[in-house]
Amino acid sequence: MKHLILIASLVLVGCAQPVKPIYQWEGYQPALYQHMKSDGAEPGAQILALEAQLQKNEATGAVTPPGMRAHLAMLYSKTGDDVAARRLLEAERAKFPESTTYVDFLLKAKSSQGAMPPEVAASQSKI
């Protein structure tokens, strides 16, 4: 009888579904690694990769990880596209309310200086 219970337990455990991750990290981690490796020299390719990942996440219903939109906003800011940067920061704040204080700080620094101050950009690149 004990053997039957053990075998039944093993069968049930073997058939269990793997745990689905909360966030879809697929394109974000390689882009972040490339950004750090290149010292942020070429944001264009990273922007394309992250935008493609955002669209893929939206199409499949996957949840975009925290910080991905903020990182993309930093990249857009480096290219001078402050409208896209603001849009992404506001989306980050809407999706992750715990980021409100930091996003508000970035938006305030951006609006008062016209561009993201170097110390803010440097702190974001270390995230």
From TrEMBL:
Pfam family, one: DUF4810
Superkingdom as given in the UniProt entry: Bacteria
InterPro entries: UCP020555_TPR-like (IPR014508)
The protein, known as: DUF4810 domain-containing protein
Organism: Pelomonas dachongensis
Organism ancestry: Bacteria, Pseudomonadati, Pseudomonadota, Betaproteobacteria, Burkholderiales
